[in-house]
Prior knowledge:
Layout: E1 5-14, E2 18-27, E3 30-34, E4 46-49, E5 55-60, E6 63-67, E7 70-72, E8 75-77, E9 80-83, E10 98-100, E11 102-108, E12 119-127, E13 141-153, E14 166-175, H1 182-208
Protein name: START domain-containing protein
Pfam families: START (PF01852)
Domain START: 58-205
Amino acid sequence: MFPTNVGILRKWTNYVYGWQQRYFEVENGSLLYYKSENEKIFGSRGSITIRCVWELFWEEGEMKMYKRNLEIDGLVQDPLKATHLVKVHKRVWPTAQRESLFWSHTRRFNEHRDADALDLFLVCNHSCVRPDVPLKQSSNVRVGLTVAMICQTKPVEDLTRNDVSCRIIYVSRVDPGGWVPVAGLRMIYKREYPKFLRGFTEYVVKNTRSTPLIL
Protein backbone atom coordinates (compact mmCIF):
# COMPACT_ATOMS: atom_id res chain seq x y z
CA MET A 1 0.00 0.00 0.00
CA PHE A 2 1.19 3.50 -0.82
CA PRO A 3 0.80 6.35 1.71
CA THR A 4 -1.69 9.15 1.15
CA ASN A 5 -0.08 12.58 0.95
CA VAL A 6 -1.40 16.01 0.05
CA GLY A 7 0.36 19.27 -0.71
CA ILE A 8 1.09 22.03 -3.18
CA LEU A 9 3.38 21.71 -6.18
CA ARG A 10 4.43 24.07 -8.96
CA LYS A 11 3.48 22.92 -12.46
CA TRP A 12 4.52 24.38 -15.79
CA THR A 13 1.35 25.37 -17.68
CA ASN A 14 2.32 27.35 -20.78
CA TYR A 15 4.43 30.29 -21.91
CA VAL A 16 1.65 32.76 -21.07
CA TYR A 17 1.03 31.74 -17.45
CA GLY A 18 4.32 29.96 -16.73
CA TRP A 19 4.62 28.08 -13.45
CA GLN A 20 1.40 27.80 -11.40
CA GLN A 21 0.62 26.26 -8.03
CA ARG A 22 -1.48 23.10 -8.06
CA TYR A 23 -3.02 21.10 -5.23
CA PHE A 24 -2.11 17.41 -5.33
CA GLU A 25 -2.91 14.15 -3.58
CA VAL A 26 -0.94 10.92 -3.69
CA GLU A 27 -3.02 7.82 -3.15
CA ASN A 28 -2.42 4.16 -4.04
CA GLY A 29 0.57 4.95 -6.20
CA SER A 30 -1.01 7.76 -8.25
CA LEU A 31 -0.45 11.51 -8.03
CA LEU A 32 -3.64 13.46 -8.81
CA TYR A 33 -3.42 17.22 -9.23
CA TYR A 34 -6.13 19.88 -9.19
CA LYS A 35 -6.23 23.62 -9.79
CA SER A 36 -7.15 24.01 -6.11
CA GLU A 37 -8.44 21.88 -3.26
CA ASN A 38 -11.95 23.30 -3.73
CA GLU A 39 -12.04 22.02 -7.32
CA LYS A 40 -11.69 18.35 -6.33
CA ILE A 41 -15.42 17.95 -6.96
CA PHE A 42 -14.80 18.61 -10.67
CA GLY A 43 -12.19 15.90 -10.94
CA SER A 44 -8.42 16.02 -11.33
CA ARG A 45 -6.63 17.96 -14.05
CA GLY A 46 -4.29 15.04 -14.55
CA SER A 47 -2.64 12.08 -12.86
CA ILE A 48 0.80 10.51 -12.74
CA THR A 49 1.43 6.90 -11.81
CA ILE A 50 4.14 6.68 -9.17
CA ARG A 51 6.28 3.66 -8.47
CA CYS A 52 8.97 3.15 -5.84
CA VAL A 53 8.11 6.25 -3.82
CA TRP A 54 10.51 6.94 -0.97
CA GLU A 55 9.29 8.87 2.07
CA LEU A 56 11.64 10.89 4.28
CA PHE A 57 11.01 9.83 7.89
CA TRP A 58 14.13 10.98 9.76
CA GLU A 59 16.59 13.80 9.25
CA GLU A 60 19.48 15.13 11.31
CA GLY A 61 21.90 17.55 9.70
CA GLU A 62 23.16 15.99 6.48
CA MET A 63 21.85 12.54 7.44
CA LYS A 64 18.52 11.64 5.80
CA MET A 65 16.67 8.31 6.01
CA TYR A 66 13.86 7.19 3.73
CA LYS A 67 11.32 4.36 3.87
CA ARG A 68 8.97 2.82 1.35
CA ASN A 69 5.79 0.81 1.90
CA LEU A 70 5.95 -2.14 -0.45
CA GLU A 71 4.05 -5.41 -0.80
CA ILE A 72 5.43 -8.24 -2.92
CA ASP A 73 3.50 -11.50 -3.39
CA GLY A 74 1.38 -10.71 -0.36
CA LEU A 75 4.40 -10.09 1.87
CA VAL A 76 4.96 -6.66 3.39
CA GLN A 77 8.45 -5.30 2.69
CA ASP A 78 10.10 -2.43 4.57
CA PRO A 79 13.08 -1.27 2.48
CA LEU A 80 15.15 1.58 3.87
CA LYS A 81 17.81 3.84 2.40
CA ALA A 82 19.95 6.59 3.84
CA THR A 83 22.06 9.41 2.48
CA HIS A 84 24.79 11.10 4.45
CA LEU A 85 27.40 13.71 3.57
CA VAL A 86 30.67 13.20 5.41
CA LYS A 87 33.46 15.77 5.40
CA VAL A 88 36.81 14.14 6.00
CA HIS A 89 39.70 15.97 7.63
CA LYS A 90 43.19 14.56 7.50
CA ARG A 91 44.40 15.08 11.03
CA VAL A 92 48.11 15.75 11.26
CA TRP A 93 49.97 15.73 14.55
CA PRO A 94 51.34 19.27 15.03
CA THR A 95 54.84 17.99 15.79
CA ALA A 96 55.10 15.87 12.63
CA GLN A 97 58.23 16.68 10.62
CA ARG A 98 57.52 19.08 7.76
CA GLU A 99 59.46 19.72 4.60
CA SER A 100 58.86 22.03 1.66
CA LEU A 101 59.67 22.13 -2.03
CA PHE A 102 59.39 25.55 -3.63
CA TRP A 103 60.72 27.83 -6.34
CA SER A 104 62.04 31.32 -5.66
CA HIS A 105 61.94 34.41 -7.86
CA THR A 106 63.59 37.80 -7.29
CA ARG A 107 62.69 40.99 -9.12
CA ARG A 108 63.76 44.61 -8.78
CA PHE A 109 61.07 47.34 -8.50
CA ASN A 110 62.94 50.57 -7.84
CA GLU A 111 60.02 52.63 -9.13
CA HIS A 112 58.04 51.59 -6.04
CA ARG A 113 60.74 52.20 -3.41
CA ASP A 114 60.28 54.64 -0.55
CA ALA A 115 61.77 58.12 -0.86
CA ASP A 116 64.56 57.32 1.62
CA ALA A 117 65.46 53.93 0.12
CA LEU A 118 68.17 53.10 -2.42
CA ASP A 119 66.34 50.20 -4.07
CA LEU A 120 63.46 47.74 -3.67
CA PHE A 121 63.47 44.01 -4.37
CA LEU A 122 60.54 41.62 -4.35
CA VAL A 123 61.21 37.98 -3.48
CA CYS A 124 58.46 35.39 -4.00
CA ASN A 125 58.57 31.73 -2.95
CA HIS A 126 55.83 29.29 -3.94
CA SER A 127 55.51 25.57 -3.29
CA CYS A 128 55.38 23.11 -6.17
CA VAL A 129 54.93 19.39 -6.79
CA ARG A 130 57.49 17.30 -8.64
CA PRO A 131 57.17 13.51 -8.94
CA ASP A 132 60.95 13.20 -9.16
CA VAL A 133 61.41 14.83 -5.73
CA PRO A 134 59.83 12.51 -3.13
CA LEU A 135 59.64 13.07 0.62
CA LYS A 136 62.91 12.50 2.45
CA GLN A 137 61.01 10.27 4.88
CA SER A 138 57.59 8.70 4.32
CA SER A 139 56.39 10.00 7.72
CA ASN A 140 57.10 13.62 6.78
CA VAL A 141 54.40 16.06 5.68
CA ARG A 142 54.92 18.19 2.59
CA VAL A 143 54.02 21.81 3.41
CA GLY A 144 52.35 24.07 0.87
CA LEU A 145 53.43 27.70 1.07
CA THR A 146 53.39 31.08 -0.63
CA VAL A 147 55.84 33.63 0.75
CA ALA A 148 56.50 37.19 -0.43
CA MET A 149 59.17 39.56 0.87
CA ILE A 150 59.84 43.19 -0.02
CA CYS A 151 63.36 44.40 0.80
CA GLN A 152 64.63 47.99 0.65
CA THR A 153 68.20 49.20 1.14
CA LYS A 154 69.09 52.34 3.06
CA PRO A 155 71.07 54.84 0.90
CA VAL A 156 74.37 55.95 2.42
CA GLU A 157 77.36 57.58 0.69
CA ASP A 158 80.42 55.28 0.49
CA LEU A 159 78.56 52.32 1.90
CA THR A 160 80.27 49.67 3.97
CA ARG A 161 78.86 46.43 5.34
CA ASN A 162 78.21 48.12 8.65
CA ASP A 163 76.07 50.76 6.95
CA VAL A 164 73.87 48.41 4.96
CA SER A 165 70.43 47.72 6.40
CA CYS A 166 67.24 46.31 4.90
CA ARG A 167 63.55 46.67 5.61
CA ILE A 168 61.77 43.33 5.22
CA ILE A 169 58.02 42.92 4.85
CA TYR A 170 57.23 39.25 5.34
CA VAL A 171 53.92 37.73 4.18
CA SER A 172 53.21 34.00 4.12
CA ARG A 173 50.37 31.58 3.47
CA VAL A 174 51.13 28.07 4.72
CA ASP A 175 49.15 24.85 4.29
CA PRO A 176 50.26 22.49 7.09
CA GLY A 177 49.23 19.45 5.02
CA GLY A 178 46.10 18.59 7.02
CA TRP A 179 43.88 19.74 9.86
CA VAL A 180 45.72 21.18 12.85
CA PRO A 181 44.07 22.51 16.05
CA VAL A 182 44.00 26.32 16.26
CA ALA A 183 45.98 26.32 19.50
CA GLY A 184 48.62 24.10 17.94
CA LEU A 185 48.79 26.25 14.82
CA ARG A 186 49.29 29.42 16.84
CA MET A 187 51.99 27.77 18.90
CA ILE A 188 53.79 26.72 15.71
CA TYR A 189 53.74 30.07 13.92
CA LYS A 190 54.73 32.02 17.05
CA ARG A 191 57.80 29.79 17.23
CA GLU A 192 58.57 29.09 13.57
CA TYR A 193 58.09 32.53 11.97
CA PRO A 194 60.71 34.29 14.17
CA LYS A 195 62.93 31.22 13.77
CA PHE A 196 62.70 31.50 9.97
CA LEU A 197 63.49 35.22 9.93
CA ARG A 198 66.46 34.75 12.26
CA GLY A 199 67.73 31.91 10.10
CA PHE A 200 67.23 33.96 6.94
CA THR A 201 69.16 36.90 8.40
CA GLU A 202 72.01 34.69 9.60
CA TYR A 203 72.20 33.01 6.18
CA VAL A 204 72.48 36.38 4.39
CA VAL A 205 75.12 37.69 6.79
CA LYS A 206 77.17 34.48 6.57
CA ASN A 207 77.18 34.42 2.76
CA THR A 208 77.87 38.12 2.21
CA ARG A 209 80.22 39.03 5.07
CA SER A 210 83.44 38.80 3.06
CA THR A 211 82.10 39.86 -0.35
CA PRO A 212 82.25 43.38 -1.82
CA LEU A 213 79.15 45.54 -1.95
CA ILE A 214 77.13 45.34 -5.15
CA LEU A 215 74.26 47.80 -5.12
